[in-house]
Design a protein that fits this description.
Blueprint lengths: L4 H9 L3 H15 L5 H23 L8 H12 L3
Amino acid sequence: MALPLHKLTSEAMALDPADRLRLATELIDSVEESADREWAEQWTAELQRRSAAAAEREELGLSRGSDWADVKERLLRSLAPR
């Protein structure tokens, strides 16, 4: 019998971060449609471009990018009702 979503979520949130990431990956993989080769290649190229840009900023003594906590806070503020 399937667990209610709130119970499953609560149990998943109790996992350590590495296990939560593995679970999230498996869940996403389970609902994605068959791989679109062109999309995957373009996304890989974009990830490589962003990674190279972050490394270049780091070589210049700059931050590689924003901390997730800061990004999340800005996003939540932008989504909050006004």
